Amino acid sequence: MAKKEIEPKVVLEREYIIPLRREWLKVPEYKRANKAVKAIKKFLVRHMKIYDRDLRKVKVDILLNNEIRFRGMKKPPAKIKVKAVKYDNDIVKVELAEIPQVLKYKIEREKKQKEKVEKKKEEKKPEEKKEELEKKLEEEKKEEEKEEKPEEKKEKEEKREAGREAGLKIAKEEHRKMKHEVTGKKQPKIHRMALQK
After folding, report:
1. Which SS3 state, helix, strand or coil, does residue 195 take?
2. Residue 22 DSSP symbol
3. How far apart are CA 185 and CA 148, in angstroms?
4. N or C end of the chain: which has fewer CB within 10 A?
């Protein structure tokens, strides 16, 4: 049996205004945004009671990451307001506390587009398509059987067999001619008496 994934429970939920300028001033300009993200992680490891101080347990949300790098790598914000949620498996998820209106609009629009796509997928399920195709094939077979009588079927089968036999004879004769042309020998003469037998 497959194991059911148990959703982790929320242990702690807090909002912080994290100062970043003091940290990113310590590094060169082109590393400032990276240092800002690291500063957020260090701050939250300390304040959200992660005792082994493992930075990998802090997961930064995409919107928060984009907000830090919004003005480029060289000009991250001086401080940022975040909402941190700690789960019982010691993982902390961080997201923006106040999402800008522009981002809210984009997120809503993306959700609507996803819903439209899902509705279209639900309308055209592969199982329903298969059932429809099978029904059509069955109906066509029934119509063909009604149109053709058993006598006509027999005649068609006899014609097919006669055509196959004639094709085999022709193929054998051509093969015999080709064989003699390759070897350089003359074709043996077939007498009328042999043909009659």
Report:
1. helix
2. H
3. 52
4. N
Condensed to tens digits (0 to 9), the pLDDT of residues 113-136 reads: 989 888 877 776 666 666 777 788
Q: How confident is the model at residue 85 (pLDDT cuts 50, 70, 90)?
A: very high
Question: Strand, coil or helix: what is 48?
Answer: coil
Phi, psi for 48 (deg, rounded to 5): -100, 15
Would you call 186 helix, strand, or coil by DSSP?
coil
- The per-residue pLDDT for 158 is 84
CATH number of 10-112: 3.10.440.10
**H helical segments located in 48-100:** 62-68
**Pairing assessment for the beta strands 79-87 and 10-19 based on DSSP bridges:** antiparallel
Rounded Cα gap, residues 111 and 73, in angstroms? 29
Q: Is the pLDDT of residue 84 over 90?
A: yes
Say what the pLDDT of residue 1 is: 43
CA 150-154-155 angle, 5° bins: 115
Alpha carbon distance 90, 87 (integer Å)? 6
Chain segment 139-157, per-residue pLDDT in tens = 877 776 666 566 777 787 8
Q: CA 76 to CA 137: how far, in whole Å? A: 64
Helix or strand holding residue 40 (H, E): helix 32-47
Q: Where are the domains of the chain?
A: 10-112, 140-184
Say if residue 17 is exposed, middle or buried (CB neighbours under 10 Å; 0-12, 13-18, 19+). Answer: exposed
